[in-house]
């Protein structure tokens, strides 16, 4: 089976495996983290067709024919995505949750370029941060929105 991941067609030999394992083990895209395995923490979040998706609950076959975007696919060459820059300026303590927050924030900013604090809170709230970095997360997403509006 073939998947389109970060704009590239990739051959997948285990389509019945959960997407998180196909991305990490078959395709070598280890930016998608495995956390809880039940879809609660969000560290495995990817975008499928632009929609926030828990890769630990999604068989790879469910992504066939749709674009999968992982944290590795956010940057454009050397240019960071605004959410990457926003989190670089507002770092988290350990970063295990970071891929999920980056992907959720990217999806939020695609559909809502100028989110309110409540919208940022709602988008960030679908992912857990064991270190309690929620203030930094909110600041990072707000900064990413500013950068995106500035065209960076």
Automatic annotation (TrEMBL):
Superkingdom per UniProt: Bacteria
Pfam families on file: Fer2, Fer2_2
GO molecular-function term, one example from the UniProt record: 2 iron, 2 sulfur cluster binding
Transmembrane segments: none
InterPro entries named among the record's database cross-references: 2Fe-2S-bd, 2Fe-2S-bd_dom_sf, 2Fe-2S_ferredoxin-like_sf, 2Fe-2S_ferredoxin-type, 2Fe2S_fd_BS, Beta-grasp_dom_sf, Diverse_Oxidoreductases
Sorted UniProt keywords: 2Fe-2S, Iron, Iron-sulfur, Metal-binding, Oxidoreductase
PROSITE patterns found in the cross-reference section: 2FE2S_FER_1, 2FE2S_FER_2
Gene3D superfamilies tied to this protein: 3.10.20.30, [2Fe-2S]-binding domain
Domain 2Fe-2S ferredoxin-type, chain residue ranges per copy: 1-74
SUPFAM superfamilies attached to this UniProt entry: 2Fe-2S ferredoxin-like, CO dehydrogenase ISP C-domain like
PANTHER family: BLR6218 PROTEIN, OXIDOREDUCTASE WITH IRON-SULFUR SUBUNIT
Protein name: 2Fe-2S iron-sulfur cluster binding domain-containing protein
Species this chain originates from: Deinococcus xianganensis
């Amino acid at each position: 089976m073939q998947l389109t991941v970060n704009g590239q067609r990739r051959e997948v030999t285990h389509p019945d495996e959960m997407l998180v394992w196909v991305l990490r083990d078959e395709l070598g895209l280890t930016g998608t983290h495995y956390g809880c395995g039940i879809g609660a923490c969000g560290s495995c979040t990817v975008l499928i067709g632009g929609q926030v998706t828990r890769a630990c609950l999604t068989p790879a076959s469910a992504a066939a024919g749709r674009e999968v975007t992982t944290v590795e696919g956010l940057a454009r060459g050397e240019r960071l995505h605004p959410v990457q820059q926003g989190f670089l300026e507002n770092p988290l303590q350990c970063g295990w949750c970071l891929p999920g927050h980056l992907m959720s924030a990217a999806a939020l900013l695609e559909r809502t370029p100028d989110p309110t604090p409540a919208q940022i809170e709602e988008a960030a709230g679908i992912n857990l941060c064991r270190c309690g970095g929620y203030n930094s997360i909110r600041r990072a997403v707000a900064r990413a929105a500013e950068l995106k509006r500035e065209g960076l």
